[in-house]
Design goal:
Helix Hairpins, elongated, 19% strand, Beta-Lactamase, alpha+beta, 405 residues, 12 strands
């Protein structure tokens, strides 16, 4: 028994020698193998983390660019080629995107400022070739290296063109609203003096008709005619001002029986000056016994005004605007406004009802008229359609339920 125990102890003490682990080279190789396994595990973890970061990088809906410490593009995500395909290519400098006219712009360039350790938030505009101006919000953040000496720059590019245009359009709408309030105030103030002019002219005409001596005075032969013209034109001006006041009056939401012919005539008084000035021939074809519709008079005035203004603006130079009303056997009232203007392209015709969509030049339209018109017509239980061909004009047709007698 003791011999067996001694032999066992001898085997344990000689085990390292028997396996050759006392050899320094084999021990070194074992340590190397262990290090390799640790590095492979670390590398696997880094690859996993790298894939995770790349997925996050690509999931960002903004354009993301990383610039090295020389201001040269290192990386970009999949959004950048859609926004700036050439300017954000690998190897391009920040100059190509932010200051193409200058070699260096340390006070303006967000990349150059970020490389100095500053976090920058700016807005800038871009117009490539013949495209429309686009608006971008830019955020540039420094990426410090381990030594804190050579920074890189992380740049986010967000396209805010649609938002910015909507803001500009809303600002313009506010201006027009203010002008409308002022115009209504001015019209009201003018209405009072016009009433006095018409009243005194009528009094003079009545006195001349009653005084035989004045009628027989040869020096006053033309006076009745002149006074009649003054009275006629004064009341015409008052009619235009009344139409303007009716149009500018805020709707209270109430509905009543409305005759579309009357609404069209009212609105036509406000735009007739534009027709004469621009040599546009307005042709009226109104059904005399047109049924009424139930609706908000203020809203229907706006519908007619928007369509008439659009028709005028579509014509460049002389042209024709045809206005017609009719009723159908299905108890519907129809009114159509046709122009001989530039027409609407196939690509744009499906978008004309969208808010802020416009084919007009900047400052000529807000892209709200047809969107508002569409909503008002739908609110009245009607519908509006358009037929148009590029270069050959457009025809808008509004259908609304007639009053049931």
């Amino acid at each position: 028994m003791n011999k067996l125990a001694v032999r066992t102890r001898m085997d344990e003490s000689s085990l390292e020698r028997l396996l050759g682990l006392d050899n320094s080279k084999i021990g070194f190789y074992g340590e190397v193998k262990q290090k390799i396994q640790e590095l492979e595990a670390a590398n696997l973890g880094l690859r996993s983390k790298g894939n995770e970061l790349q997925a996050m990088f690509d999931s960002i809906s903004d354009g993301v660019v990383v610039y090295d410490h020389h201001g040269i593009v290192q990386h970009r995500n999949h959004v950048c080629p859609k926004l700036f395909p050439q300017e954000t290519l690998s190897g391009c400098s920040c100059r190509e995107l932010f200051h193409p006219e200058q070699e260096s712009a340390p006070l303006q360039c967000p990349v150059e400022r970020a490389l100095t350790g500053e976090r920058v938030e700016i807005s800038f505009t871009s117009q490539l070739s013949k495209e429309k101006i686009r608006y971008f919000d830019v955020t540039a953040t420094p990426i410090e290296d381990v030594h804190g000496e050579m920074n890189r720059a992380l740049v986010f590019l967000r396209d805010v063109t649609e938002k910015r245009l909507q803001e500009l359009h809303l600002m313009q709408t506010e201006k027009l609203s203010s002008i409308g309030i002022l115009a209504a105030g001015v019209a009201h103030e003018i209405n009072n003096p016009l009433s006095s002019v018409a009243g005194y002219a009528e009094a003079l005409l009545r006195r001349m008709n009653e005084d035989q001596a004045l009628l027989e005075d040869p020096r006053l032969d033309a006076f009745p005619k002149y006074l009649q013209v003054i009275i006629q034109e004064s009341y015409r001006c008052k009619g235009i001002i009344d139409c303007l006041l009716s149009f500018s009056r805020k709707s209270d939401g109430s509905v009543s029986n409305v005759n579309i012919n009357d609404i069209l005539k009212e609105v036509l008084e406000l735009v007739r000056y534009k027709s004469r000035y621009e040599k546009i021939d307005i042709q009226l074809n109104l059904q005399s016994d047109l049924p009424d519709v139930i609706g908000d008079p203020s809203g229907l005035r706006q519908v007619c005004m928007n369509l008439l203004i659009n028709a005028h603006q579509a014509i460049n130079g002389a042209g024709v605007v045809e206005i017609s009303t009719s009723s159908s056997e299905q108890s519907m009232v129809l009114f159509q406004i046709r122009d001989t203007g530039s027409g609407i392209s196939r690509e744009a015709i499906d978008q004309i009802w969208d808010p802020f969509f416009t084919t007009k030049e900047v400052g000529q339209g807000l892209g709200l008229g047809l969107a508002v018109t569409y909503n008002i017509v739908k609110r009245h239980g009607g519908d509006i359609t358009v037929e148009s061909q590029k270069g050959k004009g457009s025809k808008f047709t509004v259908r609304m339920p007639a009053c049931q007698k």
